[in-house]
Amino acid sequence: MNKLNLMITGIGGQGVIAASDIVSGAALAAGLDVKKTDSLGMAQRGGSVISHIRFAQKVWSPLVKAGEADILLSFEKLEAARWSHYLKAGGIAIVNNYTVPPPSVSLGKECYPDDTEITGILKQRTDRIYFISGTAFAKELGNVKTLNTLMLGCLSIFVPFEIDIWRDCIFGRLPPKVAKLNFSAFEWGKTEMERILNTRRSA
Amino acid sequence: MKKLLSGNEALALGAYHASIMVAAAYPGTPSTEILENLSRFDDIYAEWSTNEKVAMEVGLGASYTGARSLVSMKHVGLNVASDPFMAAATTGINGGLVVVSADDPGMHSSQNEQDNRHYARIAMVPLLEPADSQEAYELMSYAFDISEKFDTPVLFRTTTRVSHSKSVVNVIGSRKTPSRQPNFCYDQTKYVMLPSYARLRHPLMEERLAKLAIYSDTFPLNRIISGDKRLGIISSGVAYQYAREVFPEASFLKLALTHPLPKEVIKQFAGQAEKLIVIEELDPLLEESIRSMGIEVTGKELFPITGELNPDIIEQGGIKAGLIKAAPKQKSDYSTPKLPARPPLLCPGCPHSGIFFILSSLGHRSSLPGKPSRKPKMIITGDIGCYTLGANPPLVAMDTCACMGAGIGEALGMEKAGVDDKIIAVIGDSTFLHSGITGLVNAVYNKGQITVIILDNRTTAMTGHQDHHGTGITAQGQQTTAVDLAQVARGVGVSNIKTIDAFDIKALRAGVKSSIESPELAVIIVQGACAVHIPKSANSRAIEDNLCDTCGLCLLIGCPAIRNEDGRVYIDASLCIGDACGICQQVCPHKAITSTAIKDEKGNE
Fold first, then answer.
1. Interface subset of B 256-315, CB within 8 angstroms of A
2. Does B227 touch chain A (CB under 8 A)?
3. Which residue of A has its CA nearest to B328?
4. Closest by alpha carbon to A16, among A64, A52, A42?
5. Which domain holds residue A42?
6. B500/B402 same-domain check
7. Do B360 and B487 lie in a common domain?
8. Which of A90, B259, B284, B426 can pair with B127 through a Cys bridge, CB separation 3.0 to 4.6 Å?
9. pLDDT per residue over B182-227, tens digit each?
């Protein structure tokens, strides 16, 4: 792995920025040039969040160009659809199978797209779409906030930095009392992604 | 040592390594993290000032004694600080003074996207623009040297994409203990701007600018990167990074000191390029200056003057000019679906939710799902803070938002103009201390009858929870005297003052109703700590399906924890903060909302 355009998206409060910091730190530790930038609008939470991460031998722009993201890692389904135009043809979409209706949907003014629509939007770019029951498992693990490292575990299958690098970056970025649980979530995500890929291969 | 730093972290570290002694700022996106980072060093003095003007004056005073000082703010903060900034440009400095203006092209979190490079021209001071974190770090030591060498404050302009992007910094420097003991040199001709002394300064400023122009041509970070001579690109800031990405073969003149411009270097570069273009964000400052030198150049006819640039936009400009071939086919075969937007919201348990729900309801702003909308009544003037989100649906309870502190003056102006509507000004606690007090003094003195609601959430929330002068804790964590907002109101002559709990819906409704009917100016202080500071309670609220008739009233609070999925209204227990709030429970006309603890008991019966 020596070059990647990655986008991480989700909703304010889901840990997108921390996830983006961890993977950027991992790329630096792996000896690469890295740039990352986040867009999070005005508020602390609740809004759409997108993080661009680029690493290579030399990186100029921190922003990924539309249609040039190798991987889109999304913590929520609608956000995956919203940012899918950044994916390159044949890129990889890893999507947390989780719905958060925005206010206009709750107030009955707009409709949340169903799974077929979301898949259809992503399929304009790629067939490599992987839905992960991330939030459900993070809850089972006892802390829904581990979702971000769990999703990074899924990502790590396609971004094969050494496991020690990932571990150091998770422990370096998160408070000690939750880092261990987050690393378990990371490992679960990794195993789950492997399982999904194996199932697809054998199918 | 290589580190991954944001632009703001890098320039704070650069300033620390440049031996600053004093730093002052008011929080404002995208500048806030600069002072946050500096405040962690215990061998410098760092403060949150009441506003940017005060921060500039603190920085200037420190500089007058010979101490290096840094002042940072967002772009519109420099409007507030422009008076002392211009004064600093006139008197000059003693210890290096660097003024960081973090601009926000694209208005990620701002009310306008003014290009603050103009300020360098007005003030006749040097302007530095970093293009990434490495430059933000390196330019800082140049900035202080230039400031002292030319007896001038230096304007250091970043943008959101530089301040908030992280990139690799090779940290080569370290802090040297300042060599000079701060010492004020009494010199009225330099520091007392009576007209007779000020007249002496103006020619010196002109002379300074001429010397800086010569220096600019020698500045090592204004540099030519030789490439294909058919296309020469002049750029600065993050636009340079995008341009390198899109035109990898071209020749570049990368500028970091952009005022005054390095004219000889520009002439030399232009002479070598067959076609010359300028790529800069917002206003055509470089372009117009270069054209005025008699050099043929293209810029804003290819790249937009509004909004933030990105590589896609620059690529489109390149295609338009025939400099690159059209984008590969895959980009055009994607159809963008219409998806529901996800605007930022007030948090679950936000102490602003209750009062805005009341204003929305009394002011006829929101209507229940399926019910027709009503004509608004009661004017609500506002300004800048988390509470500006009260303008968003479903609350729609803010009618103006111009700049920090504007609501109180606007409300008085509306009243004096003679509108019939009741007028309420809402303002946050930090904003009130920033620039609301003078407006209140004026409104009281001029016999206004408006209602002023101060939203006291005990923090500067929107910029990431900085303490302010009402919290009793300094930027470096020391206990101090907190401003008592009610005492301030009393002190300026308000007699009708109410303090109301932000989570008591009945009291809020009664308080607003009685205040707007009052024949004199009324102040309501709505007190409730920011939800981010409240530990989550176990007793989140829940909706009893058998009691809920899905009327949708609770949805009008705009709480992100309350949702409607396929006609069923429910509360997301992982988001609800529970007992500390309880607004929805008070609002529900069917008593269908209970605490989960009570619900569980019932379940066990």
1. 310-312, 315
2. no
3. A67
4. A52
5. 4-202
6. yes
7. yes
8. B259
9. 999 999 999 999 999 999 999 999 999 999 999 999 999 999 999 9
